[in-house]
Amino acid sequence: MLHQLAQANIALLKEPIGSELLSDFVALLEPINAVADASPGFVWRLQTEDGDSTAIRAFDDERIIVNMSVWESIDALAAFAYDSRHLEVMRRRRRWFERMDASYLVLWWIPEGHRPAPEEGRDRLEHLQRNGPTERAFTFKAPFPAPGSRESTPVDERWECPTG
User: Fold this and answer.
1) Residue 53 CA to chain centroid, in angstroms?
2) What are the strands, taking DSSP E only, across the chain?
3) What is 3-131's CATH number, 3.30.70.100, 3.50.30.30, 2.30.130.10, 3.90.1170.20?
4) So where are the chain's domains?
5) Residue 86, φ and ψ in degrees, nearest 5
6) 3-class secondary-structure state, position 32
7) Pairing verdict, β 97-98 and 42-45
8) pLDDT digits over 54-73, tens only?
């Protein structure tokens, strides 16, 4: 069975999504999502009819927004996250989002063709927060190979959020 990489990340909004403070972030959603959609190795992303996932709530706190996507490999996701215009957004995240003490990004392997629901992303993130990196839920810094893979997954120091 072939596997693909799922990722979920969350952010705690400083203000409501329609606020002036978040206007730059909202303006970047469409162009950054277009970069993701066109990136090599991109498979799928969570979105509503509006084309993004900012209206989807998977947590009790209404200020938490969730983003999820599926990729062919860790390398493909890392290239988008750290070697594209997306990096600009990550560097500016403290303008729009509260600093989170717990992990806000989780990676896990899924069978090819599976599309994870927001609740699955929440559960994987909570597992990572409780247990640290495991085969069930891991990070760029502590990756696990796909099930059945004989290859190890190298750690690349670029795969860490530049803003912590």
Assistant:
1) 11
2) 3-13, 42-45, 64-71, 97-98, 105-111
3) 3.30.70.100
4) 3-131
5) -60, -35
6) helix
7) unpaired
8) 999 999 999 999 999 999 99
pLDDT at 106 over 70: yes
Which pTM value belongs to this model? 0.89
| Of 158, 102, 98, residue with least CA distance to 130 | 102
Long-range contacts of 73-76 (CB under 8 A, 24+ apart): 73/4, 73/5, 73/41, 74/5, 74/107, 74/140, 74/143, 74/153, 75/41, 76/5, 76/39, 76/40, 76/41, 76/42
Q: What is the pLDDT of residues 20-42, one digit of tens each?
A: 999 999 999 999 999 999 999 99
Q: What would the two tokens of residue 141 be?
A: 């810094």
Nearest CA among 129, 154, 127, 131 for reference residue 142: 154
CA distance 9 to 154: 21
